């Protein structure tokens, strides 16, 4: 978390992967991988009047936001490797992969609060109702996929 002036932003992120490999037979191996990435974010941004500028800004405001997203992938493969006559290498790989990702964000803001104290500006419903704004929706990362992929090398 960091604080710049009176703005606050909290962000959480966790990611990682797990990998396993096992020899099923003399020339056959199985591999599996699971990976994930999770993000959460919450923010409060406070705008103060700045009358000392040439144009003069006399409006205070506040914006709050919330965002969350996740993604994961799961991969399984089986491989076969053989060498014939010490010069011919044959390798076959068959696998399946699944992945998914999702994210969403929403936020709201208001302006023209009656007081300049941070405690009042931190709550959106204390601002002028005629200046309210909001946004939100899913982020464009929605993916669901299952797939199989064979590969042969001679």
Explain this structure.
- This protein is mainly beta and 154 residues long.
- It has one domain.
- The protein is built from one helix and seven strands, in the order E-E-E-E-E-H-E-E.
- Strands 1, 2, 3, 4, 5, 6 and 7 form a seven-stranded antiparallel beta sheet that branches.
- A hairpin with a 2-residue loop joins strand 1 and strand 2.
Provide the structure class. Answer: mainly beta
- SS element count, helices: 1
Give the amount of beta strand, in percent. over 45%
| Overall radius of gyration | 27 Å
Unreliable residue runs: none
Order of helices and strands: EEEEEHEE
Average pLDDT, rounded to a whole number, is 82
Helix content: under 10%
Number of strands: 7
Give the domain tally.
1
Biggest pleated-sheet summary = 7 strands, antiparallel
Distance N terminus to C terminus?
A: 54 Å
Spatial shape: rod-shaped
């Amino acid at each position: 978390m960091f604080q710049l002036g009176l703005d606050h932003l909290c962000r959480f992120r966790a990611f990682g992967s797990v990998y396993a490999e096992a020899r099923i037979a003399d020339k056959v191996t199985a591999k599996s991988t699971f990976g994930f990435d999770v993000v959460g974010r919450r923010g409060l941004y406070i705008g103060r009047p700045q009358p000392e500028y040439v144009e003069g800004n006399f409006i205070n405001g506040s914006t709050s936001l919330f965002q969350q997203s996740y993604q994961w992938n799961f991969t399984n493969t089986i491989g076969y490797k053989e060498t014939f006559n010490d010069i011919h290498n044959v390798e076959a790989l068959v696998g399946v992969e699944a992945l998914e990702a999702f994210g969403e964000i929403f936020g709201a803001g208001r302006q023209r609060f009656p007081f300049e104290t941070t405690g009042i500006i931190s709550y959106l419903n204390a601002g002028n109702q005629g200046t309210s704004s909001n946004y939100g929706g899913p982020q464009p990362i929605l993916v669901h996929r299952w797939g199989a992929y064979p590969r042969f090398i001679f």
